[in-house]
Write a structure and sequence with these properties.
Elements: H1 2-6, H2 9-16, H3 23-78
């Protein structure tokens, strides 16, 4: 996963070293939280994808259904 690759110890230390006085505390806190963040990030990413895809998918299916009904009615009228 991208979040797992970005949260390597080297990258976390590089980010934490910007706060010189508290770099060690930030590093330890981030490495403690890291295993809990990845499942949460995965779930939230999946929910965002579903929230983005579902409206478009439902509109597409409704459009297909409408086109099918129009073709079915045209066949009935011309038959």
């Amino acid at each position: 996963m991208l979040a797992d690759r970005l949260a390597t110890p080297e990258n976390v230390w590089r980010m934490a070293s910007r706060w010189m006085s508290r770099a060690r505390e930030i590093y330890e806190g981030m490495m403690t939280i890291r295993p809990h963040l990845l499942p949460l990030a995965t779930r939230s990413t999946l929910l965002m994808v579903l929230a983005a895809v579902f409206p478009y998918g439902s509109v597409y299916l409704l459009d297909c259904w409408q086109r099918y009904r129009v073709r079915r009615n045209a066949r009935r009228i011309t038959a």
